[in-house]
Design a protein that fits this description.
Strand order of the largest sheet of chain A: 1-3-8-7-6
Shape of chain B: globular
Largest sheet of chain A: 5 strands, antiparallel
Number of strands of chain B: 11
Helix content of chain B: under 10%
Largest interface: A-B, 25 and 29 residues
Structural class of chain B: mainly beta
Number of strands of chain A: 10
Strand content of chain A: over 45%
Oligomer: heterodimer
Structural class of chain A: mainly beta
Distance between the termini of chain B: 31 Å
Number of helices of chain B: 0
Radius of gyration of chain B: 13 Å
Chain lengths: 111, 113
Amino acid sequence: SQQGEEDPQALSIQEGENATMNCSYKTSINNLQWYRQNSGRGLVHLILIRSNEREKHSGRLRVTLDTSKKSSSLLITASRAADTASYFCAPILHNTDKLIFGTGTRLQVFP
Amino acid sequence: DSGVTQTPKHLITATGQRVTLRCSPRSGDLSVYWYQQSLDQGLQFLIQYYNGEERAKGNILERFSAQQFPDLHSELNLSSLELGDSALYFCASSAGGETYEQYFGPGTRLTVT
């Protein structure tokens, strides 16, 4: 079964707008990672947030984590056409380092 | 470029055949992970090796096997191939441990006809 579930499944926005993707998971975690995948290519690590952190920034990315609600969000500000990709969250369970991916959010940014 | 290499890039073969996919991890990474991505199943974790030993197993079929060699490269063997095995197979590597990000290779696209 999938550990992380992203929402929405697909999102289309104009360049310059912000994009928010949400992730829910089922059990206690040590940390949670977000990855990006361009069509048919390998995944690229974006950001890792630990279970004792509530928010983390990296460039135009902002990730939040709410362990009480078992949810995380990824915000991409001032989106660009090059941000068009699928985005996956991957919660890392205690005592494991394997990634269990959800179905991802397909983001399309129109120029 | 993640530093993880996978060969071959594409593979087309017939049902019932056997193939071997190869992965070279980033320099210094001890952990290698294999994932399968298909349209109907999404991205699924198959198996992980750490410094030559199997560490974790996911949704890997009995027809599939993997190993990690002393030089840390890994091979995924798929046998008695079925049409449903057509997918992208990714290898990833990390330094090991749950706080390390994984670096993905470009994948091998397997088509079973």
